[in-house]
Write a structure and sequence with these properties.
Structural class: alpha+beta
Strand content: 15-25%
Helix content: 25-40%
Order of helices and strands: EEEHHEEEEEHHEEEHHHEEE
Radius of gyration: 18 Å
Number of helices: 7
Oligomer: single chain
Bound molecules: magnesium ion
């Protein structure tokens, strides 16, 4: 199944350990048809393992999509990938009891050329900027969100609530996959943000809206967002993907093969190599303790990884290599 239609997806991604954490437990995957952010939890290496395993399931989905029929059911494919992610977590925890109870969020957007299928579990988020207005298009699976829904606290109180990170749903070893699955209609000019709570908890909604509305190119946007989260104390790992929807070039069939997600150095201005051979895929290998890592082990808290890409809707998507499965031996 290839993205079809007249719209082009242009995106950039950045992930950063932040200022206080020793390791980056976020993982992220981007390709011309899939954008995904996972925020792992579980302590020690478990969080990294969990988010990497979830992203590995998304990477696998991307491979399957290359061979899928054009009429394949997008939401079913997404749901299956989420189930696969849980199975991977369960399998890993059975092999290594130290990983028992590990979990991760997963926010995934699957682009079919005219709309996004969305799979959502946990409190990573997707937002849409349309005509200057920012809107959160995923719903947090948190205790605090439920309190807001029940009218027991205000949305304003939720922002600083001490239990705001307590999840009601996550992908967990031994658990069940229970994602929200839905479509989002897409228009030219839309801009999408997918991020972990290391961004959305730290940078206020109004500032996110301002940056997304005012900064023109996705690589500059993700750089700015990471800077702002770090300037806000960087209490958690920060990951963001920004994707713009544009009209594809008018020439008939001239869009050609989609560019593979391109590594264009580092828009954040920090000189850190991105994992080679894995355009578009960035995983949580920033831990100074990370052993099975595709990147040098000398990452510091100031390091940020970034990549950009462009996928023409009518072109051939190039699956990115997996970097999401850096699980321990
Ligand atoms: Mg987080």
């Amino acid at each position: 199944m290839e993205p079809s239609g007249s719209l082009t997806l242009r995106y950039a991604v950045a992930t950063d350990v932040g200022q206080r954490r020793e390791a980056n437990e976020d993982s992220v995957y981007t390709s011309p048809r899939l954008l995904a952010v996972a925020d792992g939890m579980g302590g020690h290496v478990a969080g990294e393992v969990a988010s990497s395993a979830a992203i590995a399931a998304i990477t696998e989905l991307d491979r399957k999509l290359a061979d899928a029929d054009d009429d394949a059911d997008t939401l079913e494919l997404l749901g299956d990938a989420v189930s696969d992610a849980v199975d991977k977590l369960t399998e890993l925890a059975l092999k290594d009891p130290r990983l028992h109870g590990m979990g991760t969020t997963l926010t995934t957007l699957l682009w079919d050329g005219s709309r996004f299928g969305v799979a959502q579990v946990g409190d990573s988020r997707a937002y849409r900027l349309r005509a200057g207005e920012l809107e959160q298009i995923t719903r947090d699976h948190t205790v605090v969100q439920e309190l807001v829904d029940q009218g027991r606290i205000t949305p304003e109180a939720a922002i600083t609530h001490p239990s705001r990170s307590v999840l009601t749903r996550a992908l967990q070893s031994g658990g069940e996959a229970d994602p929200d699955l839905f479509f989002v209609e897409v228009r030219p000019g839309d801009r999408y943000l997918i991020c972990s709570d290391g961004l959305s908890d730290v940078v206020p909604f109004e500032i996110l809206a301002e940056i997304l509305a005012e900064v023109p190119e996705p690589p500059s946007v993700v750089q700015k967002l990471v800077e702002l989260a770090n300037a806000g104390g960087g209490p958690d790992n920060i990951t963001c993907v920004v994707a713009d929807i544009a009209e594809a070039p008018a020439e008939d069939g001239a869009a050609g093969p989609a560019d593979a997600p391109e590594e264009t150095g580092n828009p954040t201005g920090v000189d850190v190599p991105v994992p080679s051979g894995a355009p578009g895929a960035i995983s949580s290998t920033k831990s100074t303790k990370s052993t099975n890592s595709a990147e040098p082990a000398d990452s510091t808290a100031d390091d940020a990884e970034a990549a950009t890409g462009e996928g023409t809707a009518s072109g051939e998507a190039t699956p990115a290599a997996s970097q999401g499965n850096n699980t321990p031996e």
